[in-house]
Amino acid sequence: MKSVIFAGVLGNVAAIQIRNPIKLFSPAKFDDFFSFGAKLQEVSSHEIHDEDKDMSIPFANFVGDRNNATNLQEQPEEPRPTLKEYAPFYHTSDEIRVHLDDLAKSCPSAANFELHAKTSSDQGRKTDIQYVTIGNKDANHRVFMLAGEHAREFIAAESALHFLKSLCGQTDVNMNSLLDDVLFQVVVNANEQSRRKAEEGHFCLRVNPSGVDLNRNWDTHWRQSKAKGTETWGGPEAFSEPETRIFRDLVLDFKPTAFVSIHSGTKAMFSPYAYAPKLPDFNAVNMSHVLRDLDTKYCECPFGPAGSELPYLSRGTCMDWVYENLEIPYAFVFELWGPPEDFPRLKNRFQQDLKIHHDKFEFHRVLENEVGSHFEEEDGKKAPIANLAEKVGMSECFHIFNPEKEDDFVKLNKQWTSLYRDLSERLVDAPTVAELNQHPRHVSDDAAADE
Ligand SMILES: [Zn+2]
Fold this sequence. Notes:
With 451 residues, the protein is of the alpha/beta class. It contains 18 helices and 13 strands. Helix 4 packs parallel to helix 5, helix 9 runs antiparallel to helix 16 and helix 9 runs parallel beside helix 18 (442-450). Bound molecules: zinc ion. Zinc ion (ZN) binds at residues 149-150, 153, 263, 265.
């Protein structure tokens, strides 16, 4: 069954969107709008939203009765499905906590699974960030994983949880002897307070309870923005948020050799920088080789520096901060899932990225000069937070950020757990930044030997 995700009158334009593309009707074509709508009478779960009056009415009441367009009656809000109603195979934040408690008891003692928490009562709200350390405490190779910064990206926390279960031998993904050589620290549910709200059916919610994007609040190329109330507001100042301060303190204490920030909304594998169409200042080639190989095996999605691959630039991200401030040789953002209708385009882009990559250092020059984006996230162009929900509806948000089918969910978790495993194994013998600095030619040697 087709599902209308948006239908309504915006100023002097009427619009209906059924997935993509959006169909627009000028006032002269309002009759077309209504007859088009009439054909959709039999479909369910749709509404008309009048932005001026900020009210919704069921679409069926509207179709065929033009006069109602200017005389809308307020209707009670339809009940939202919760996460468990919509996709019961996902875990709520409560369930994630139960699973982590269970793992603390059931994970083999050789794994050194430890569950900790850091708390804060800043801003009059209690922030309680759980994190896990697991693996060999004497390992030189230390991987930090941060999942769930954005509330609606349910799959990110699921992926981190699945990875931990796998490390404890509780899934069918073979983790080899990874824990002998690596110490992991993992934040599974980074924006738990907002995720709890998202779990109640607010599937478009991204920011923390203070309206701040936790992945724009780090003190790296951060700048004052008037964009309060938009989805990517970086906060009143860098590190204004208790969550980001806790993450910062964790990485400062842990001193990772590799850092991974886990997201969804598209499929991609990114390296620094995100704030500019600029290549990483150190270890760029090693990072792009790692991405290329893992991407080819598991994702077939766009890869490379985030600011060059994405159509926009992001200031104040965790990836840029750890890369610049901790001199971590490997810092990544992984985007696990996007709307499936976008997959062919992403695969295409992957093929292009492979070609670009093939030219080794030329790869970098091309990216910087040609592929790179120069679009700042301009305040004036930012949509208010409510807009995505109003524009596309809650189920479409779920569709954009999370697998809806259990098959996809299961497959994706296995796939990314295997990827995290391969990544961590591969980096066991990777040079540290100090070693890279001692042997400045190492990077080019590696590139020359690679192909
Ligand atoms: Zn995200």
